[in-house]
C-alpha cells in the first residue's frame, strides 16, 4: 500500500501498544509475558517498553490498547490498591485488583480503549489470571490479548495443558510471544516475563536474538 | 489486515473460511472447512466443497467471494485442460497457478477472491502456490488462507516440519483446521482434505464431531 502522507506517523497518530500479552496460572503462581513495541501509526516510538505493570507486590497487570489509557488505569488501580491494603491490613487479593480495573474499564468504557489482563498470587486463591476486556470480569486458566494474540489462538489452544509446571509455563509464554511477534507488525522488540509466586515477583527480559525460532526463521 | 477487509466488504455469499495446503515427503495435502456465509451472520451452506479439481493431480481452494471464485476456477479449468491437450502432457502445477494468477491480476479491480493451488507434477513433485488478492503468485512449502487462518499462524509456524510423512501431515492439517474452526465464527462444518501423490488422489472428509478436541472442549 502506498503511503499518501509525507509526515511521519508519530506526529499525528495516537500512541498504541498494539501488542501481544499473555498470562497463565500454574500451581502456586502465575507467569505474565509481553512484547515491548509501542507504535504510533506505522512508527515504532518505543521498542523497549515494559508492558507488565506492578499493581502490588504480588499482583501485576499486562497492558494493551491505547498506551495512555492503559498506563492511567494501572496507576489509578495501584493507588487504590495501596489504600485498600492498608485498610484491610494485609496483602490484597488478586480478585480485588481485577475488580478495581474492571470498575474503571466498565464505567468509562466509551472513552477508554485499553485492555488489561490482571494476574498475581494471594494466599487465599493461589495463582489467578483475570481478564477485564470491555468491563467484564472473568477468571481463566490462561489469557492472551492485544493485536498479536489473534495469530496465536490456534497455538495456545493446541499447546495448553492443565497442571503445567512453572518452567513449562515460562517456556509456553516465551514460545507464544515469539510466534506472535514474528507475525504481528505491531508486536516486537524484546520479551518481558514476570513470574509471581508465594515468595514474590521475579522479572526477566529476553532479548530478541535469544527468543526461540521456528521453521522459517 | 487484508483478509478481514476482504470478508467484510464482500456482498453476497462469501467463503469466510479456512484453507490450507501442506507439502510432505512424496505429496501434498490440501484442506478446507465447509462453511459458506453471508455477512458473517447467516450460514448459507454447511457442506460446501471448496476444493476444486482443475486437473488430475492439481486442486485449488478458494477464499473470498464465492461467485468470483467459481467463475475464475471454471475459466481456469477450461484453460488448463486446453493447455494440457496442446502440450500432450499433464500440466505443471506452476502452469495451473499461473493461469489463476493471470485471471486475478487482469481483473483485479472487479474480483475479490484468493486461491491456493496445490498438486503434483513430474518435473518438481509436490508443490503449493498462493495467488493473493491482487494477483501475486508465490511458491511456499505450506500456506494457509482465509479468515480463519489468522488464528493458526502461530500453530502452523510452530508445528510445520519439512519432509513429514503422510500421516504426520494429515494430523498437522486436521489439527490446524480444527483449531481455526474453533476460533473463527465464519469457518466450520466438516473438514475436507485431499491427499495428492504420484499414485493418485484421495479424499478424506472428517465430520465435525470427529475432529480433534483441545483443552477447553
TrEMBL record, chain A:
Q: Which GO terms describe its molecular function?
A: threonine-type endopeptidase activity
Spell out the Gene3D superfamilies in the cross-references: Glutamine Phosphoribosylpyrophosphate, subunit 1, domain 1 (3.60.20.10)
Q: Where in the cell is it found?
A: Cytoplasm; Nucleus
UniProt keyword annotation of Hydrolase present: yes
Q: Would you name any one GO CC term?
A: cytoplasm
User: What SUPFAM superfamilies has UniProt attached to this entry?
Assistant: N-terminal nucleophile aminohydrolases (Ntn hydrolases)
- GO biological process: one example: immune system process
User: Where in the sequence is the active site?
Assistant: 19 (nucleophile)
Could you confirm whether the keyword Nucleus appears in this record? yes
Q: Which UniProt keywords apply?
A: Cytoplasm, Hydrolase, Immunity, Nucleus, Protease, Proteasome, Threonine protease, Zymogen
According to its UniProt record, which reaction does this protein catalyse?
Cleavage of peptide bonds with very broad specificity
Which Pfam family is an annotated match for this chain, by its short name? Proteasome
Assembly description: The 26S proteasome consists of a 20S proteasome core and two 19S regulatory subunits. The 20S proteasome core is composed of 28 subunits that are arranged in four stacked rings, resulting in a barrel-shaped structure. The two end rings are each formed by seven alpha subunits, and the two central rings are each formed by seven beta subunits. The catalytic chamber with the active sites is on the inside of the barrel. Component of the immunoproteasome, where it displaces the equivalent housekeeping subunit PSMB6. Component of the proteasome complex.
| PANTHER family linked to this entry | METALLOPROTEASE TLDD, PROTEASOME SUBUNIT BETA
> Would you identify the family this protein belongs to, as annotated?
Belongs to the peptidase T1B family.
Q: What does this protein do?
A: The proteasome is a multicatalytic proteinase complex which is characterized by its ability to cleave peptides with Arg, Phe, Tyr, Leu, and Glu adjacent to the leaving group at neutral or slightly basic pH. The proteasome has an ATP-dependent proteolytic activity. This subunit is involved in antigen processing to generate class I binding peptides. Component of the proteasome, a multicatalytic proteinase complex which is characterized by its ability to cleave peptides with Arg, Phe, Tyr, Leu, and Glu adjacent to the leaving group at neutral or slightly basic pH. The proteasome has an ATP-dependent proteolytic activity.
Give the protein name, as stated in the record: Proteasome subunit beta
TrEMBL record, chain B:
Residues at the catalytic site:
17 (nucleophile)
PROSITE patterns from the xrefs?
Answer: PROTEASOME_BETA_1 (PS00854), PROTEASOME_BETA_2 (PS51476)
Which GO molecular function entries does the Swiss-Prot or TrEMBL record give?
A: threonine-type endopeptidase activity
Q: Which UniProt keywords apply?
A: Cytoplasm, Hydrolase, Immunity, Nucleus, Protease, Proteasome, Threonine protease, Zymogen
* InterPro entries from the UniProt entry: Ntn_hydrolases_N, Pept_T1A_subB, Proteasome_bsu_CS, Proteasome_sua/b, Proteasome_suB-type
UniProt-listed GO biological process terms: immune system process; proteolysis involved in protein catabolic process
Reactions catalysed according to its record: Cleavage of peptide bonds with very broad specificity
Q: Where in the cell is it found?
A: Cytoplasm; Nucleus
Where mainly found? Answer: cytoplasm
Q: Which GO terms describe its cellular component?
A: cytoplasm; nucleus; proteasome core complex, beta-subunit complex
Range of residues in the leader sequence: none
Q: Which family does it belong to?
A: Belongs to the peptidase T1B family.
Assembly and interactions?
Answer: The 26S proteasome consists of a 20S proteasome core and two 19S regulatory subunits. The 20S proteasome core is composed of 28 subunits that are arranged in four stacked rings, resulting in a barrel-shaped structure. The two end rings are each formed by seven alpha subunits, and the two central rings are each formed by seven beta subunits. The catalytic chamber with the active sites is on the inside of the barrel.
Q: Name the PANTHER family on file.
A: ATP-DEPENDENT PROTEASE SUBUNIT HSLV (PTHR32194:SF0), METALLOPROTEASE TLDD (PTHR32194)
> What does this gene product do?
Component of the proteasome, a multicatalytic proteinase complex which is characterized by its ability to cleave peptides with Arg, Phe, Tyr, Leu, and Glu adjacent to the leaving group at neutral or slightly basic pH. The proteasome has an ATP-dependent proteolytic activity.
Name of this chain's protein: Proteasome subunit beta
Q: Which organism is it from?
A: Hucho hucho
Amino acid at each position: 500500500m502506498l503511503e499518501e502522507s509525507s509526515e511521519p506517523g508519530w506526529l499525528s497518530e495516537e500512541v498504541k501498544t498494539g501488542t501481544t500479552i499473555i498470562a497463565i496460572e500454574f500451581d502456586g503462581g502465575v507467569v505474565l509475558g509481553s512484547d515491548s513495541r509501542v507504535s504510533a501509526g506505522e512508527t515504532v516510538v518505543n521498542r523497549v517498553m515494559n508492558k507488565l505493570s506492578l499493581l502490588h507486590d504480588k499482583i501485576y497487570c499486562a497492558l494493551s490498547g491505547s498506551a495512555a489509557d492503559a498506563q492511567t488505569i494501572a496507576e489509578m488501580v495501584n493507588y487504590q490498591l495501596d489504600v485498600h491494603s492498608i485498610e484491610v491490613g494485609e496483602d490484597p487479593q488478586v480478585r480485588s485488583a481485577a475488580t478495581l480495573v474492571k470498575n474503571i474499564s466498565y464505567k468509562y468504557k466509551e472513552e477508554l480503549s485499553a485492555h488489561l489482563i490482571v494476574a498475581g498470587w494471594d494466599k487465599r486463591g493461589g495463582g489467578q489470571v483475570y481478564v477485564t476486556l470491555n468491563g467484564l470480569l472473568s477468571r481463566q486458566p490462561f489469557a492472551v490479548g492485544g493485536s498479536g494474540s489473534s495469530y496465536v489462538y490456534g497455538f495456545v489452544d493446541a499447546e495448553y495443558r492443565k497442571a503445567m509446571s512453572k518452567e513449562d509455563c515460562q517456556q509456553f509464554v516465551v514460545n507464544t510471544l515469539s510466534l506472535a511477534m514474528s507475525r504481528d507488525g505491531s508486536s516486537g522488540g524484546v520479551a518481558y516475563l514476570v513470574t509471581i509466586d508465594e515468595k514474590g515477583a521475579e522479572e526477566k527480559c529476553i532479548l530478541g536474538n535469544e527468543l526461540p525460532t521456528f521453521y522459517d526463521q | 489486515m487484508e483478509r478481514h477487509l476482504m470478508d467484510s466488504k464482500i456482498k453476497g455469499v462469501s467463503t469466510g473460511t479456512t484453507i490450507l495446503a501442506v507439502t510432505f515427503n512424496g505429496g501434498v495435502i490440501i484442506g478446507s472447512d465447509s462453511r459458506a456465509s453471508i455477512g458473517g451472520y447467516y450460514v448459507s451452506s454447511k457442506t460446501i466443497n471448496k476444493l476444486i479439481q482443475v486437473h488430475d493431480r492439481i486442486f485449488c481452494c478458494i477464499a473470498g467471494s464465492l461467485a468470483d471464485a467459481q467463475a475464475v476456477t471454471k475459466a481456469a479449468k477450461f484453460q488448463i485442460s486446453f493447455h494440457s491437450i496442446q502440450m500432450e502432457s499433464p500440466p505443471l502445477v506452476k502452469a495451473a497457478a499461473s493461469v489463476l494468477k493471470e485471471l486475478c491480476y487482469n481483473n483485479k479491480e472487479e474480483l475479490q477472491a484468493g486461491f491456493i493451488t496445490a498438486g503434483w507434477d513430474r518435473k518438481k513433485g509436490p508443490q503449493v502456490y498462493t495467488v493473493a488478492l491482487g494477483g501475486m503468485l508465490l511458491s511456499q512449502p505450506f500456506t494457509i488462507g482465509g479468515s480463519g487462518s489468522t488464528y493458526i499462524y502461530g500453530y502452523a509456524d510452530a508445528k510445520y516440519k519439512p519432509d513429514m510423512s503422510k500421516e504426520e501431515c494429515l494430523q498437522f492439517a486436521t489439527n490446524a483446521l480444527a483449531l481455526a474452526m474453533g476460533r473463527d465464527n465464519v469457518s466450520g462444518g466438516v473438514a475436507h482434505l485431499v491427499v495428492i501423490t504420484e499414485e493418485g488422489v484421495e479424499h478424506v472428509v472428517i465430520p465435525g464431531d470427529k475432529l480433534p478436541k483441545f483443552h477447553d472442549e
